[in-house]
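Issue 218. Parser rejects a valid record. Input:
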Amino acid sequence: MSDAIEQAALRLREAGEKHQPCAPIRDLIAPTDVAAAYAAQEINTKYWLGRGRKLVGRKIGLTAVAVQKQLGVDRPDFGLLFDDMLAAEDRAIPFAELMQPKVEAEIAIVLKQPLAKAQHSIADIAAATDYVCAAIEIVGSRIANWDIKLADTVADNASSSHFVLGARKVPLAQADLVNCAMTMIRRGETVSTGAGAACMGNPLNAAVWLADTMVQYGRPLQAGDVIMTGALGPMVAVAPGDIVEARIEGLGQVRATFGH
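Output the parser choked on:
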């Protein structure tokens, strides 16, 4: 492991611990060096697991073609979901816990079986799925002013922060993940709209990519894991006191509340 990768991981970790956004890590890792960026992410993953945090799933980022073009890539990225990132619908998330937060509406998949093959199909994902639900991801960046390139966001655990799962658990066979419409409302105003197809044509396509990728990286998905499959519409910044509700056709609704 190079000193530069270690330094990049430490810079991001200290930014989160001190709650002080840092400079991009592009002086340490080339903007498109995905391997080095995931190596930095893995250093911090091992650090947090060693301090008692528990892995409960993964998030998929960069599923929108427009965002991929912005960062000059042609594939998604992933981050790790830890137990303390799950926020309850009835609990206001203290704003002090967040760093430059934005929200996006997603479909979450909860697994009942592991996904450990080298290559998976949509049928494999379907067979391993316990249920799907509406979800809100709160993204955040340890890097000041969201001044990110690909390596910055990958190393920063895919710019992850928190996530909220809706209470309605829907069997996959009863959900239309492609055509379902999404509306996200903040303080009573519609701020984002979209549909399931916005996530790589079908959120299950994103899940296939993730399952295969996690096997390659030596952390295959397990029974009980949550997969945050990716945004169904544009992300939106939030402020202290905001209430955000996402409604996804066929999956119900989910709410994120932000404290002051």
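Fixed in the parser; the record now loads. The mean pLDDT is 94.
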